[in-house]
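Your task:
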Amino acid sequence: MELRTLRYFVAVAEELHFGRAATRLHMSQPPLSRAIKQLEADFGALLFARSAAGVRLTPAGTVLLDEARALLDHADRVRLRVSAAAGVAAITVGILGDGTDPAALRLAAAYRRRHPGIDIRVRDTDLTDPTCGLRNGLVDVALTRAPFDESALTVRELRADPVGVVLRADDPLARHDRLRLADLNDRRWFQFPQGTDPLWQSYWNGGISREGPVVRTVQECVQAVLWNGTVGLAPLGDHLHAEQLAVVPLIDMAPSRVVAVWNKGDVNPLIRSFIETATAAHRG
């Protein structure tokens, strides 16, 4: 019985769906099904009851889920203790956006409680790189927003936020309760520097090519709105502290997805723990 197979089992047990578990594990469904059947053969017991209504744990599967989680947690602690003894127990987290988001604050507190002895380094990044330096090896994991090029990366969605348009408070459109993207077609939109991920740029331009001032930071976006009347977009609930600004919901704009992202194939247990803690923090 390998730890990898136990991780497969836990994924299926938590998702109660082989397809979703395979997606979560970044593998196809047939080898996942074969691994679970082999595990059942090894134990001599059915772990899942399969029917047209779906998948559910059997009593044996319920017991194994508790034991598997405990074994995997212990394995991660062993890796961390060995890493600490070798002087390599550290993780660098990239953060894009508002680090005072309540979920991000819960994540920071919970992760510190879970790993009190490691060195947690934080790298704040501007809007020009939605992966927060992950591709350049500057961080181990990033808490950011999609969309962006996900090739060679693993992405876990944590939350989806509705988006609004940021306007000067004296802008005529600021009196509206809601707006559509077409209402903003004659406006200038902020742009990111040349070379920025095109999927990222396109999203924050409402999906079409726009013109406007080049910005790198959230504060520069705010100033572009205040000084130039530029259209800015922001997730509803973001903390834009300026009395001269108004945020009006956009009813036809796709939500902004908060995600955790790391390099595909990276099995660092500190990253795995970060993802688990982030998922829990954004649920509650």
